[in-house]
Amino acid sequence: MSCPQTPPPPPHHELRLEAVTTSVGFDDLLDVTLALNHPHLDTMIVVTSHSDKATQRVARKHGAICVQTDLFGKNGRRFNKGAAINAGFGHFQYHGWRAHIDADTALPDNFRRMLFNHTHLDHQAIYGADRVDVIGLVELLKHRRVPQVAWRAFMSPGGVVSPRYVDPIRGYVPIGYFQLWHADCQKAYPFSLGTAAHDDVLFAEQWPRSKRHVLPTVAVVHLCASPPKLSENWDGVRRQPRLDK
Known about the structure:
The chain is an alpha/beta fold. It has 6 helices and 11 strands. The strands form 2 sheets. Strands 1, 2, 3, 4, 5, 6, 7, 10 and 11 form a 9-stranded mixed β-sheet that branches. α1 (27-37) packs parallel to α2. It is globular and about 45 Å long. It starts with 16 loop residues before the first strand and ends in a 21-residue tail after the last strand.
């Protein structure tokens, strides 16, 4: 089913890019990723709790819109990611491209050029990207020193590449560390009694399988203080140490 027809946005909105992220207790990582991500974005929205003063300070430091909400505890959940993201969606400023990214996700330094100059984007689709684990600030600096090009015959982002979510029934599903879509197909973020990962999958599944794609030229960075374990943050309890600066 196609999305409802809406009046066309102003032409300059087609190159607008905004992002929302949730962060409770990840202020140390967010301080690094916001500095790297915000230059690519027209609007950066950080959703956090009323009590997380450290994340609020980081958002102000980098000029992001800071949304404070109690929705992380909705329905008795420890970390109701979907409900909190919806609070952030209300602060989008443009009718252009929108992304949800995790607080520990860093975009590549040529992200905006790759996105708008070298990728054909479908307004009716949702996009994911491959992700590379990078441990610590020293490794992050080394990773970003490697020249990035928009097109390669064989793309090899280096480092440990996180597995894609490919379900035998659902097919490929862009999960929550990076999801990109156009305002023409804006949808609410579902939430249930599952984990944050479950909310991510439910959101992307609102697009039909034929409209769920991997960005072919983009690999984002998963910044970690120590080697990550699958599912370690899905319930909102941080198990990673703080980033050594």
